Amino acid sequence: MNLLLGVGLWVTVGVLLAIVIAVAIFFAIVPVNVWTKTLLSNAYIPARKLVGMKLRNVDVGLIVGCYINAKKAGVNISISDLETHYMAGGNVDRVVEALIVAHGAKINLSVDNAKAIDLANRDILLAVQNCVTPVVITTPPISAVACDGIELICKVRITLQSNIEKLIGGAGEETILARVGEGVVTVVGSAKTHQLVLENPDAISKTVLAKGLDNGTAFQILSIDIADIDVGRNIGAKLQAEQAEADVQIANAKAEERKAMAIACEQEMRAKTQEMRAKLVSAESEVPKAISHAFRNGNLGVMDYYRIQNIKADTQMRNSIGDNGGNNS
């Protein structure tokens, strides 16, 4: 009898010990405080899911907290969606907050689209907030020149609303600013005078807004307003003055070129004249030799020589008389 009592006692102790060990293992594996929180928040999550997330190194507290907030706000989202987005490197807290804001503002934003936007490194919460409250951006000073040559410096305010459907792959604010600047330059440049632009600045806004500059961007342009217009320089007069100065420089360069060509021609003529004189002197030096040779060969007599000298003297006298007569006249 005592043996049976002893065996029964040991069995009881073993069962109790097994229960204690099982409870210890349960509390060690299962985040009981988080699991209890889901029960009290009417957002029940099975313990096995919590254990699975813990084994996968998922931040259980963050995921469960976001899940409870979403359920309390009426957002239809599963714990698996949040866990998957967390493991993909997404910002779970930001996505859930954006879904809550979109649900409250009646904005059509699905869970999959919100997760995709966040993974595309877009600020999903800011985009949703910009849908609720449009953002206003101001362009830097835009310089444009009217047809009369007067420069106008404009500043434009653009009211934008985020386009959730085009947030992935859509262009950003820089593209909007560049397109608006191009539109302002086009409108001002087509105006006949700058006075017409100053009298009707709203014409710029209407024309630019009608161009559909938000195509392919992540925004919708609600309004374009001219914040300021200043009159700048007289670009037309400046360009004309610069053109006149350039024409003068070109004319001076051409005159210098003609002068250089004239000097070169004069030097060439002088060289040719000197060459001809040298040939003449060389030829004249051959005359005495020819006369001497004629005397030796008997081809020229003394009287012939004197007649040549008389003709030469008579020619020189005539030339001298002609030169004196020309000077006197």
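Next protein, fold it too.
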Amino acid sequence: MYPLADPFTLVLVSPQIPPNTGNVARLCACTGCKLVLVEPLGFSIDDKQLRRAGLDYWDKVFLRLYPSWEAYVTDTKGARRFLFSALTGQGLWQVRFSPGDHLVFGAETTGLPDRVLASGDGAPVTIPMLDDRRGLNLSTSVGIAAYEALRQNQG
């Protein structure tokens, strides 16, 4: 695998569980993806569990923190966004990702807020799974989506 000139950005909106965010940070360090966190967060950036999950990779992660969804959208005008939801959207296997795309995920317990899904600021996408299931773990979902995007774009 080689790094993309225009890496993907993995966006976590209001994540609540430090180890999940740490795992996503580690994923970013190992793939070259950028990481964006949108407040409010359910933990402090200095959280011990967050640091432990990210191990010693934090210095290799491009991290940006935004105070709100609106601030993130305003600062990233023109970004092509995919809004991941267990409840709605085009199936992951039908999406064609391009370098620089933003893959957006919501909180572990609630997913993306309805206002974000209905905002028109991205295309809803769902990861296929069996019926009558609540959803995958956040860091698992991010890993599946990130590696599918990378697979599509490794020449």
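About the second fold: The CA atoms of residues 10 and 123 lie 15 Å apart.
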